[in-house]
Each structure stands twice: as structure tokens, then as C-alpha cells.
Amino acid sequence: MEINKEQEALAKKKFEDDIKNVDSDDVDYASKKGKTKIDELDKNPPSVLMKVWNDLKLMINLIIDYVKGDYTNVPWNTIAAITGAIIYFVSPIDVIPDFIPVVGYVDDLTVIKFTLDLVSEDLIKYKQWKNN
Fold first, then answer.
1. Spatial distance between the Cα atoms of 30 and 88, rounded to a whole number of angstroms
2. Structural domain boundaries in the chain
3. Which of 28, 61, 111, 129 is the most buried if burial means most Cβ atoms within 10 Å?
């Protein structure tokens, strides 16, 4: 299942616009809403997100640990990108609304993959920290 180039461009533009204005309230919101949504979907994640599910959970956990002050050795642009991706993921209304069966999370997948490309090195460092 894929989205067309126009939908992909709209999703990326919305994400890029959103991360320019991320503040600490957004980070806090993303940590809480991201955790809630992951908990709701964890037993039966959307099939389209299966390949990135563990990475998405890792991003949400990084934000949670950042908000708690447990993990702060991460650049603000990484926090902003992850926050933007999580807010996009938890929002039911985006380029393709999540309530549309099967395809509702395809645009979310695009944003998550884009974010993973941006923050992969910092996620690796966080995962190493988390495992120690």
C-alpha cells in the first residue's frame, strides 16, 4: 500500500512545517499521546506500520525519557523531528485520515520513515543508553 507523490509531498510538508515550531509543551504532549496510542495499538498494530513499529516505540520512549529528564544527551533538532512525527502519528486527521481502513496509516508511515532517516544515529545512541 502506497500513497501518491502528491500525498507524500503534503505529508512531508506538514511535518516539516510542524517541526519548525516545536516547543517543550509539544514534546510533553507527544510523550503522553504517543505512549497512549502505542499502548492502544500495541496488541494489534496497523499492518502498514509493522516494519517501523519497534522504531516508532523507541522514538516515543526517547521522548518520554527526555521529558522525565532521564535522557537529555540528544540535539534539539532530533527532539523536534521525533515530536513532529509523533504528533503526526497521533493525529487522526492528517493527509490520509487514520480512520480510513488499511490506508489510514500510510501517510504516517511516510513521516515516520522520513524521521527515522533524520534521527537514526541519535536513536542508535539512545538504544545503547537504554540497554545499559
1. 9
2. 5-131
3. 111
